[in-house]
Amino acid sequence: MIVALGIGCQKSCPAEAIESAIHGALAAAQAHGTIRGIFTIDGKAGESGLIEASRKLGLPIVPLGRTALAARANDIITHSPRVEHLFGVGSVAEAAALVGAGPASRLAGPRITHLGAACAVAISPEIPS
What we know:
Mean pLDDT: 94
Radius of gyration: 13 Å
Number of helices: 5
Helix content: 25-40%
Low-confidence stretches: none
Number of strands: 6
Order of helices and strands: EHEHEHHHEEE
Strand content: 25-35%
């Protein structure tokens, strides 16, 4: 099984908050499999907290464009009007996780938030192309 983590975060969000959101989302999802990486909107990929969290967890950060996220907008669970206004999708974390896990993916549940960070887990039975 393929597992992808989608992250959304506030500017200057600390690594500890991102790590807590990731651990909480993985625990809630009870997903087992190979974690492909941390997927996020391209404008967040350079955030120092996200970079630090990815290093600690040994996972690559994969930046995604708005078009890729918008392609999975109908499959998300959480809809934040503020996030939709800013980024064109109701949940960056959920859409990014779905893109990361591939076209046959589904969310393991709604995103988990912690102190300015949001993490969603998507799973797919097949390797995305």
